[in-house]
Write the C-alpha coordinates for this entry.
Amino acid sequence: MPIPNTLALPARAKMGIRATCVEEVQEAQRYCREHGLPFLALGEGSNVVARTHVAQFVCLMGLTGIKVVAQSPREVLVDVAAGENWHQTVSHTLSQGWYGLENLALIPGSAGAAPVQNIGAYGVEVAGLIDQVEIIDDQGELQLLDVASCEFSYRNSIFKTRRDWIITRIRLRLHRQADVVIAYPELQADLAAQHQSNPTPEAVFDAVQRIRRNKLPDVNINPNVGSFFKNPLVAAPFASALKDHNTWLKVFPQDGVGEMVKLSAAQLIDQLGWKDRPAAEVMCWQAQPLVLVNRGKADSDAVLSFAESIRADVLSHFGVHLELEPSVLS
Ligand SMILES: Cc1cc2nc3c(=O)[nH]c(=O)nc-3n(C[C@H](O)[C@H](O)[C@H](O)COP(=O)(O)OP(=O)(O)OC[C@H]3O[C@@H](n4cnc5c(N)ncnc54)[C@H](O)[C@@H]3O)c2cc1C
Protein backbone atom coordinates (compact mmCIF):
# COMPACT_ATOMS: atom_id res chain seq x y z
CA MET A 1 0.00 0.00 0.00
CA PRO A 2 1.41 3.47 -0.86
CA ILE A 3 2.15 5.57 2.23
CA PRO A 4 0.88 9.16 2.02
CA ASN A 5 3.61 11.56 3.08
CA THR A 6 4.13 15.28 2.58
CA LEU A 7 7.84 14.81 1.76
CA ALA A 8 6.62 13.03 -1.40
CA LEU A 9 8.97 10.11 -0.79
CA PRO A 10 8.34 6.92 -2.71
CA ALA A 11 7.16 4.59 0.06
CA ARG A 12 5.01 1.49 0.35
CA ALA A 13 3.87 -0.50 3.37
CA LYS A 14 3.87 -4.27 3.32
CA MET A 15 0.17 -4.25 4.25
CA GLY A 16 -2.38 -1.72 5.37
CA ILE A 17 -5.93 -0.44 5.49
CA ARG A 18 -7.83 2.79 5.91
CA ALA A 19 -9.99 2.44 9.03
CA THR A 20 -13.12 4.55 9.42
CA CYS A 21 -14.34 3.37 12.85
CA VAL A 22 -12.91 2.13 16.14
CA GLU A 23 -13.97 -1.47 15.44
CA GLU A 24 -12.02 -1.55 12.16
CA VAL A 25 -8.90 -0.32 13.94
CA GLN A 26 -9.35 -2.95 16.67
CA GLU A 27 -9.83 -5.68 14.07
CA ALA A 28 -6.68 -4.65 12.18
CA GLN A 29 -4.72 -4.49 15.42
CA ARG A 30 -6.00 -7.99 16.42
CA TYR A 31 -4.95 -9.33 13.00
CA CYS A 32 -1.45 -7.91 13.51
CA ARG A 33 -1.21 -9.38 17.03
CA GLU A 34 -2.22 -12.83 15.78
CA HIS A 35 0.18 -12.71 12.81
CA GLY A 36 3.14 -11.09 14.60
CA LEU A 37 3.02 -7.99 12.38
CA PRO A 38 4.14 -4.58 13.69
CA PHE A 39 1.18 -2.17 13.61
CA LEU A 40 1.45 1.53 12.86
CA ALA A 41 -1.26 4.20 13.04
CA LEU A 42 -0.81 6.99 10.51
CA GLY A 43 -2.65 10.26 9.91
CA GLU A 44 -1.73 12.45 6.92
CA GLY A 45 2.01 11.65 6.85
CA SER A 46 3.11 15.23 7.52
CA ASN A 47 5.59 14.31 10.23
CA VAL A 48 7.20 11.14 8.93
CA VAL A 49 10.21 10.19 6.83
CA ALA A 50 9.03 6.98 5.20
CA ARG A 51 11.54 4.41 3.98
CA THR A 52 10.92 3.01 0.50
CA HIS A 53 9.78 -0.36 1.91
CA VAL A 54 8.00 -0.15 5.23
CA ALA A 55 7.72 -3.56 6.88
CA GLN A 56 4.78 -2.59 9.08
CA PHE A 57 1.03 -2.90 8.80
CA VAL A 58 -0.07 0.69 8.28
CA CYS A 59 -3.50 1.75 9.50
CA LEU A 60 -4.57 5.07 8.01
CA MET A 61 -6.82 6.74 10.58
CA GLY A 62 -9.95 7.79 8.69
CA LEU A 63 -12.29 8.21 11.69
CA THR A 64 -14.35 11.39 11.42
CA GLY A 65 -16.74 13.44 13.55
CA ILE A 66 -16.70 16.54 15.73
CA LYS A 67 -19.23 16.87 18.54
CA VAL A 68 -19.88 18.91 21.65
CA VAL A 69 -20.12 16.75 24.78
CA ALA A 70 -20.59 19.44 27.46
CA GLN A 71 -20.73 23.19 27.74
CA SER A 72 -20.99 25.97 30.27
CA PRO A 73 -21.04 29.75 29.78
CA ARG A 74 -17.22 29.70 30.04
CA GLU A 75 -16.15 26.48 28.32
CA VAL A 76 -17.04 23.84 25.81
CA LEU A 77 -15.80 20.25 25.65
CA VAL A 78 -15.49 19.06 22.06
CA ASP A 79 -14.70 15.53 20.89
CA VAL A 80 -12.75 15.32 17.64
CA ALA A 81 -12.19 11.98 15.90
CA ALA A 82 -8.60 11.07 15.02
CA GLY A 83 -9.02 11.34 11.25
CA GLU A 84 -10.36 14.89 11.19
CA ASN A 85 -8.03 17.35 9.47
CA TRP A 86 -6.38 19.60 12.06
CA HIS A 87 -6.68 22.94 10.29
CA GLN A 88 -10.33 22.30 9.44
CA THR A 89 -10.92 21.50 13.12
CA VAL A 90 -9.31 24.82 14.12
CA SER A 91 -11.37 26.68 11.54
CA HIS A 92 -14.61 24.93 12.55
CA THR A 93 -14.19 25.54 16.29
CA LEU A 94 -13.43 29.21 15.71
CA SER A 95 -16.50 29.60 13.50
CA GLN A 96 -18.61 28.25 16.40
CA GLY A 97 -17.16 30.81 18.85
CA TRP A 98 -15.04 28.18 20.65
CA TYR A 99 -11.63 29.73 21.23
CA GLY A 100 -8.10 28.57 22.01
CA LEU A 101 -6.88 26.85 18.85
CA GLU A 102 -6.35 29.97 16.70
CA ASN A 103 -2.53 30.02 17.10
CA LEU A 104 -2.41 26.44 15.80
CA ALA A 105 -3.98 27.30 12.43
CA LEU A 106 -2.55 25.76 9.26
CA ILE A 107 -0.53 23.04 11.01
CA PRO A 108 -0.86 20.13 8.57
CA GLY A 109 -2.06 16.72 9.67
CA SER A 110 -4.82 15.00 11.58
CA ALA A 111 -6.39 15.63 14.98
CA GLY A 112 -5.30 12.16 16.16
CA ALA A 113 -1.63 12.96 15.59
CA ALA A 114 -1.80 16.34 17.37
CA PRO A 115 -1.09 14.93 20.86
CA VAL A 116 1.72 12.65 19.62
CA GLN A 117 4.30 15.42 19.40
CA ASN A 118 2.18 17.93 21.33
CA ILE A 119 1.90 20.23 18.32
CA GLY A 120 2.69 23.83 19.03
CA ALA A 121 3.11 27.17 17.30
CA TYR A 122 3.16 30.89 18.11
CA GLY A 123 3.14 30.45 21.87
CA VAL A 124 0.46 27.74 22.18
CA GLU A 125 0.74 23.95 22.58
CA VAL A 126 -2.18 21.62 22.07
CA ALA A 127 -1.47 20.09 25.51
CA GLY A 128 -2.96 23.22 27.09
CA LEU A 129 -6.29 22.59 25.35
CA ILE A 130 -6.62 18.84 25.69
CA ASP A 131 -8.94 17.43 28.33
CA GLN A 132 -8.73 13.72 27.45
CA VAL A 133 -7.36 11.40 24.81
CA GLU A 134 -9.13 8.18 23.86
CA ILE A 135 -6.83 5.34 22.86
CA ILE A 136 -6.91 1.69 21.94
CA ASP A 137 -4.26 0.07 24.13
CA ASP A 138 -1.92 -2.78 23.19
CA GLN A 139 -4.59 -5.32 24.23
CA GLY A 140 -7.23 -3.77 22.00
CA GLU A 141 -9.15 -2.10 24.86
CA LEU A 142 -10.49 1.46 24.68
CA GLN A 143 -9.09 3.70 27.42
CA LEU A 144 -9.47 7.36 28.34
CA LEU A 145 -6.29 9.19 29.36
CA ASP A 146 -6.38 12.45 31.27
CA VAL A 147 -3.84 15.19 30.48
CA ALA A 148 -1.41 14.16 33.22
CA SER A 149 -1.27 10.60 31.82
CA CYS A 150 -0.30 11.98 28.39
CA GLU A 151 3.03 13.27 29.87
CA PHE A 152 3.17 16.25 27.53
CA SER A 153 6.32 18.32 27.16
CA TYR A 154 7.95 20.31 24.35
CA ARG A 155 7.23 18.35 21.10
CA ASN A 156 6.81 15.23 23.18
CA SER A 157 4.28 12.99 24.91
CA ILE A 158 3.86 9.45 26.15
CA PHE A 159 2.61 8.53 22.65
CA LYS A 160 6.17 8.89 21.31
CA THR A 161 7.23 5.94 23.48
CA ARG A 162 3.93 4.00 23.54
CA ARG A 163 3.88 3.44 19.78
CA ASP A 164 1.47 0.54 20.39
CA TRP A 165 -1.29 2.90 21.61
CA ILE A 166 -3.63 4.17 18.94
CA ILE A 167 -5.34 7.53 19.40
CA THR A 168 -8.96 7.36 18.26
CA ARG A 169 -10.34 10.65 19.58
CA ILE A 170 -9.26 13.77 21.42
CA ARG A 171 -11.39 15.84 23.77
CA LEU A 172 -10.63 19.57 23.66
CA ARG A 173 -11.51 22.06 26.40
CA LEU A 174 -12.11 25.36 24.58
CA HIS A 175 -13.09 28.79 25.82
CA ARG A 176 -16.29 30.65 25.02
CA GLN A 177 -14.69 33.96 25.85
CA ALA A 178 -11.78 35.23 23.83
CA ASP A 179 -8.44 35.04 25.60
CA VAL A 180 -5.83 35.55 22.89
CA VAL A 181 -2.14 34.59 23.22
CA ILE A 182 -0.12 37.16 21.30
CA ALA A 183 3.22 37.38 23.09
CA TYR A 184 5.12 35.69 20.25
CA PRO A 185 7.22 38.43 18.57
CA GLU A 186 6.37 37.55 14.94
CA LEU A 187 2.68 37.51 15.81
CA GLN A 188 2.91 40.86 17.57
CA ALA A 189 4.71 42.38 14.60
CA ASP A 190 2.09 41.12 12.14
CA LEU A 191 -0.80 42.33 14.29
CA ALA A 192 0.84 45.74 14.71
CA ALA A 193 1.27 45.99 10.94
CA GLN A 194 -2.47 45.31 10.62
CA HIS A 195 -3.21 48.01 13.26
CA GLN A 196 -4.72 45.37 15.54
CA SER A 197 -4.09 46.62 19.07
CA ASN A 198 -6.85 44.53 20.65
CA PRO A 199 -7.09 41.52 18.31
CA THR A 200 -9.95 39.05 18.28
CA PRO A 201 -9.26 35.29 18.01
CA GLU A 202 -10.27 35.60 14.34
CA ALA A 203 -7.61 38.30 13.80
CA VAL A 204 -5.01 36.04 15.45
CA PHE A 205 -6.14 33.13 13.24
CA ASP A 206 -5.69 35.31 10.13
CA ALA A 207 -2.31 36.62 11.33
CA VAL A 208 -0.97 33.12 11.99
CA GLN A 209 -2.03 32.02 8.51
CA ARG A 210 -0.39 35.06 6.92
CA ILE A 211 2.88 34.45 8.75
CA ARG A 212 2.92 30.74 7.95
CA ARG A 213 2.11 31.27 4.26
CA ASN A 214 5.01 33.73 3.98
CA LYS A 215 7.49 31.61 5.83
CA LEU A 216 6.73 27.95 5.10
CA PRO A 217 6.73 26.13 1.78
CA ASP A 218 3.47 24.70 0.46
CA VAL A 219 3.86 20.91 0.71
CA ASN A 220 2.08 20.44 -2.62
CA ILE A 221 4.75 22.46 -4.41
CA ASN A 222 7.82 21.98 -2.21
CA PRO A 223 7.38 18.69 -0.29
CA ASN A 224 8.50 18.88 3.34
CA VAL A 225 7.58 17.90 6.91
CA GLY A 226 7.87 21.30 8.56
CA SER A 227 10.68 21.60 11.12
CA PHE A 228 13.10 18.74 10.62
CA PHE A 229 14.82 19.25 13.99
CA LYS A 230 13.53 20.19 17.43
CA ASN A 231 14.83 23.38 19.00
CA PRO A 232 17.54 22.10 21.36
CA LEU A 233 17.16 22.39 25.13
CA VAL A 234 20.55 22.94 26.75
CA ALA A 235 21.84 23.76 30.24
CA ALA A 236 21.79 27.52 30.96
CA PRO A 237 25.55 27.73 31.81
CA PHE A 238 26.40 25.95 28.54
CA ALA A 239 24.25 28.43 26.56
CA SER A 240 25.84 31.34 28.34
CA ALA A 241 29.37 30.08 27.52
CA LEU A 242 28.32 29.54 23.89
CA LYS A 243 26.94 33.08 23.75
CA ASP A 244 30.26 34.50 24.99
CA HIS A 245 31.82 33.29 21.71
CA ASN A 246 28.76 33.81 19.52
CA THR A 247 27.12 37.07 20.53
CA TRP A 248 24.35 36.64 17.95
CA LEU A 249 23.00 33.53 19.75
CA LYS A 250 19.33 33.71 20.79
CA VAL A 251 18.60 32.05 24.12
CA PHE A 252 15.02 31.45 25.26
CA PRO A 253 14.29 30.84 28.97
CA GLN A 254 11.98 27.86 29.62
CA ASP A 255 9.33 27.75 32.31
CA GLY A 256 9.27 24.61 34.40
CA VAL A 257 12.35 22.86 33.03
CA GLY A 258 14.87 23.81 35.70
CA GLU A 259 18.15 25.23 34.47
CA MET A 260 17.44 24.45 30.83
CA VAL A 261 17.09 27.04 28.08
CA LYS A 262 16.04 26.67 24.44
CA LEU A 263 18.17 27.60 21.43
CA SER A 264 16.89 28.19 17.92
CA ALA A 265 17.89 25.25 15.71
CA ALA A 266 17.13 27.42 12.66
CA GLN A 267 19.62 30.05 13.81
CA LEU A 268 22.42 27.51 14.33
CA ILE A 269 21.79 25.98 10.89
CA ASP A 270 21.57 29.39 9.28
CA GLN A 271 24.86 30.55 10.81
CA LEU A 272 26.63 27.60 9.19
CA GLY A 273 25.34 28.63 5.79
CA TRP A 274 23.18 25.59 5.08
CA LYS A 275 20.58 27.63 3.20
CA ASP A 276 23.19 28.09 0.47
CA ARG A 277 24.44 24.50 0.45
CA PRO A 278 21.75 22.48 -1.31
CA ALA A 279 22.37 18.83 -2.13
CA ALA A 280 21.26 17.40 -5.47
CA GLU A 281 17.92 16.23 -4.13
CA VAL A 282 17.34 18.09 -0.86
CA MET A 283 17.70 21.65 0.36
CA CYS A 284 16.96 23.95 3.30
CA TRP A 285 14.07 26.36 2.72
CA GLN A 286 15.37 29.93 2.31
CA ALA A 287 12.82 31.57 4.62
CA GLN A 288 13.15 28.83 7.27
CA PRO A 289 16.29 26.65 7.14
CA LEU A 290 14.83 24.22 9.67
CA VAL A 291 12.59 22.95 6.88
CA LEU A 292 14.16 20.45 4.48
CA VAL A 293 12.57 20.31 1.06
CA ASN A 294 12.54 17.38 -1.36
CA ARG A 295 13.61 18.98 -4.64
CA GLY A 296 11.70 16.33 -6.56
CA LYS A 297 13.46 12.99 -6.70
CA ALA A 298 14.74 12.38 -3.17
CA ASP A 299 14.23 9.13 -1.33
CA SER A 300 14.51 8.67 2.44
CA ASP A 301 18.28 7.98 2.22
CA ALA A 302 18.89 11.31 0.48
CA VAL A 303 16.82 13.24 3.04
CA LEU A 304 18.31 11.52 6.08
CA SER A 305 21.90 11.83 4.88
CA PHE A 306 21.41 15.59 4.21
CA ALA A 307 19.93 15.93 7.70
CA GLU A 308 22.84 13.98 9.17
CA SER A 309 25.38 16.35 7.53
CA ILE A 310 23.60 19.30 9.15
CA ARG A 311 23.48 17.56 12.54
CA ALA A 312 27.20 16.71 12.40
CA ASP A 313 28.10 20.27 11.40
CA VAL A 314 26.06 21.84 14.22
CA LEU A 315 27.55 19.39 16.71
CA SER A 316 31.16 20.00 15.67
CA HIS A 317 30.81 23.82 15.55
CA PHE A 318 28.60 24.46 18.56
CA GLY A 319 28.62 21.21 20.58
CA VAL A 320 24.81 21.14 20.29
CA HIS A 321 22.91 17.92 19.53
CA LEU A 322 19.98 18.34 17.17
CA GLU A 323 17.17 15.83 17.54
CA LEU A 324 14.99 14.79 14.59
CA GLU A 325 11.37 15.94 14.87
CA PRO A 326 9.67 13.58 12.36
CA SER A 327 9.44 9.81 12.92
CA VAL A 328 11.35 7.56 10.55
CA LEU A 329 9.10 4.74 9.27
CA SER A 330 10.92 1.56 8.29
C1 LIG B 1 4.59 22.58 6.39
C2 LIG B 1 4.53 21.96 7.74
C3 LIG B 1 4.43 22.75 8.87
C4 LIG B 1 4.38 22.18 10.14
N1 LIG B 1 4.28 23.00 11.22
C5 LIG B 1 4.20 22.49 12.46
C6 LIG B 1 4.09 23.35 13.59
O1 LIG B 1 4.02 24.57 13.46
N2 LIG B 1 4.04 22.78 14.81
C7 LIG B 1 4.07 21.43 14.99
O2 LIG B 1 4.02 20.98 16.14
N3 LIG B 1 4.16 20.58 13.93
C8 LIG B 1 4.22 21.07 12.68
N4 LIG B 1 4.33 20.24 11.60
C9 LIG B 1 4.37 18.78 11.81
C10 LIG B 1 3.00 18.08 11.62
O3 LIG B 1 2.09 18.92 10.99
C11 LIG B 1 2.41 17.61 12.95
O4 LIG B 1 3.31 16.78 13.62
C12 LIG B 1 1.10 16.85 12.76
O5 LIG B 1 0.49 16.64 14.02
C13 LIG B 1 1.27 15.52 12.05
O6 LIG B 1 -0.02 15.02 11.74
P1 LIG B 1 -0.19 13.80 10.73
O7 LIG B 1 -1.61 13.36 10.79
O8 LIG B 1 0.31 14.14 9.39
O9 LIG B 1 0.75 12.71 11.44
P2 LIG B 1 1.59 11.58 10.70
O10 LIG B 1 2.74 12.20 9.99
O11 LIG B 1 0.69 10.71 9.92
O12 LIG B 1 2.14 10.79 11.96
C14 LIG B 1 3.10 11.37 12.80
C15 LIG B 1 3.41 10.38 13.94
O13 LIG B 1 2.26 10.23 14.75
C16 LIG B 1 1.81 8.87 14.77
N5 LIG B 1 0.35 8.90 14.68
C17 LIG B 1 -0.40 9.53 13.73
N6 LIG B 1 -1.71 9.37 14.01
C18 LIG B 1 -1.77 8.62 15.14
C19 LIG B 1 -2.87 8.11 15.91
N7 LIG B 1 -4.13 8.34 15.59
N8 LIG B 1 -2.56 7.35 17.01
C20 LIG B 1 -1.26 7.12 17.35
N9 LIG B 1 -0.20 7.58 16.66
C21 LIG B 1 -0.47 8.32 15.56
C22 LIG B 1 2.46 8.21 13.55
O14 LIG B 1 2.67 6.83 13.76
C23 LIG B 1 3.76 8.98 13.42
O15 LIG B 1 4.72 8.45 14.30
C24 LIG B 1 4.38 20.77 10.30
C25 LIG B 1 4.45 19.96 9.15
C26 LIG B 1 4.51 20.54 7.89
C27 LIG B 1 4.55 19.66 6.67
